[in-house]
Amino acid sequence: MSVDFYKYQGTGNDFIMIDNRDKALSHEVEWIAQLCNRRTGIGADGLILIENHDSLDFDMVYFNADGSQSLCGNGSRCAVNFARFLDIIGDETRFNTIDGEYAATIEDGIVHLCMKDQVAPERFEDHYFLNNGSPHHILFVERAADAPVKKQGATIRYSEQYKPAGTNVNFVEIINQHEVFVRTYERGVEDETLSCGTGITASCLASADKGLMSPIKVQSKGGELQVQFKKNNGGFTDIKLIGPAVQVFKGSVEV
Ligand SMILES: N[C@@H](CCC[C@H](N)C(=O)O)C(=O)O
C-alpha cells in the first residue's frame, strides 16, 4: 500500500506528516524509526499522525525519530498548519496531544501555540529544570555557539538523575532583556536539533528568573521564534510559542 506524506519544518525542527484519519496506519515503532532515518528513510526529527478526535478538532499523535512519544511544541505548530492545509480547521483550533488539550491560532501563516500554565522552573545550583509536557534541563552559558551540545547534552540526558526516562538539554545564552539564543539536545533524536519548541519555551521561563521579560525573541539555529507569558503567583500563565511552520515537500511511501 502507498501512503501520501508531507514534510514540514518549524524553525528547522522537521517532521513527516501523515493524514491518518482513516486509521490505515498503526503506531509501529520500528516503522516510524525507519521512516525518520535520514539515510535509509525519508528523514526527520519526528513523525506526526493527524487522527480524528471525539470532541476536539483533531488528535496530533507525535513520535520522536526513534519512535518514542512526548509533547512536541514545534511539531504542534506544524500539525496546526497541516490541519489547516487539510481543511480540518480554520484559523483557530483546539486539538489533542499526549499532554491533553492545546489551542492555537494562525495569523498571517504564523502559528501561535497556547502552552499550558506552568509553575516556575526548579532552580538548582548550576541549572534549571521544567517539565512542560516534555522534560527540560536548562543551562545558561556565555556563548551558546561554543557549547558542546551533543557531548554534554548526551552526558546529562543519560545521567543517573534522569534515569530511566532521560531529559532534553537546553543551552541558553542571554543576549539582552528580551532576547536569547537557545540550542537543544533532544531525547528521542539523540542529537542536537535546529530548534525545540518546548525547550525554547522552558528556557524563556527560566530566563524570567534571571530578569528577562515577555515577549522574548528566541534565536535558534533554524530561525526565530517568540515566546510570550505573564507572571502569576510565582508561576506563568498565557504562555505562547509563536513562529513559522512551513510545508517543504510531499511524496508517497510504500508501507
Ligand atoms: N522537538 C520538540 C520536542 C520533542 C519531544 C522531545 N524530544 C522529548 O522526547 O522530550 C519540541 O519542539 O518541543
UniProtKB/TrEMBL annotation:
Compartments in which it is found: Cytoplasm
Active site per the UniProt annotation: C72 (proton donor), C196 (proton acceptor)
UniProt-listed Enzyme Commission number(s): 5.1.1.7
Site, Could be important to modulate the pK values of the two catalytic cysteine residues: residue positions: H136, E186
Lyase listed as a keyword: no
Class of enzymatic activity (EC top level): isomerase
Sequence positions that bind substrate: N13, N64, G73, N74, N168, E186, R187, G197, T198
GO molecular function, one term: diaminopimelate epimerase activity
Top-level taxonomic group: Bacteria
SUPFAM superfamilies, alphabetized: Diaminopimelate epimerase-like
NCBIfam families recorded: DapF (TIGR00652)
Subunit structure: Homodimer.
Family: Belongs to the diaminopimelate epimerase family.
HAMAP family in the record: DAP_epimerase (MF_00197)
Name of the featured protein: Diaminopimelate epimerase
GN (gene name): dapF
